[in-house]
Amino acid sequence: MINAFASLYAISIRYRSEGNMRSLKIEFCSTPRSIAAAFTLCLALGGVGVAKAAPLLPFTQGATINTLGSLGSGDYNVGWIFDLSGSYTVTHLGYLDTGTSGFAASHDVGIYSCATLACTSGALIVSATVTTASPLQDGLFRWVIISPTTLGAGRYIVDGVAGAEAYQYTGGSVTFDPGVTWLGGRYETGSTLVFPDLTNPNSPFSYFGPNFGGTYGSQGQTPEPATLALLGIGLAGLGFGRRKKA
Fold first, then answer.
1. CATH (residue range 60-216)
2. φ and ψ of 241, to 5 deg
3. DSSP assignment of 148-173, as one string?
4. Residues 9 and 29 sit within 8 Å (Cβ to Cβ)
5. Lowest CB count within 10 Å: 79, 131, 140, 245, which one?
6. Global pTM?
7. Taking residues 205-224, what's their average pLDDT?
């Protein structure tokens, strides 16, 4: 919704979209010596036309567990290898809370690239720590917000440190995001985040564990059309005010 008030001395425009307020305010002030023009542009979440801040919970999930399978625990890194069919911006990392009652310890979660199709090595792209205070979604995964990280189409591993918490070992019923193809479970020993190069033989749908969430496409810095339109109106108002004063 756009509300606008215009006069010889002031134009104030406010734009509301999906609960986030953008306001564009242009004021014209007359003094005995000169005409001063002040321009203020406020974007509630910062920046002009930049991507909105991520909500507490992800818009989409890489995997959604419908029913849990067999559970395991121990000092392992557990995760799963997957293909993305297109560009995907990760805004959240998550870890499974099987009892929905909180964690005994925090869990480091990360996404690795795959250097080859076999994905025997790769580089850590992004990581975060999921805590017992992280919000719960669908009664199973707790999520933490990360800086938006865009992954191109390709092959990746999402990995997490299990520690004393249970993770899905095998079986169960899992629904994957349409752009995500699950390829298998991965694991490695260790209580810190490491690349999991061992393949779990107990398919299907093993080693959740970790998860990721976000949205399709990339989140760039290009001004949005509505923001550009408001800016144009404001500049036009600036010229109008000067002409009238003259």
1. 2.60.120
2. -65, -40
3. EEEEPSEEEEEEEEEEEEEEEEE-SE
4. yes
5. 245
6. 0.69
7. 74
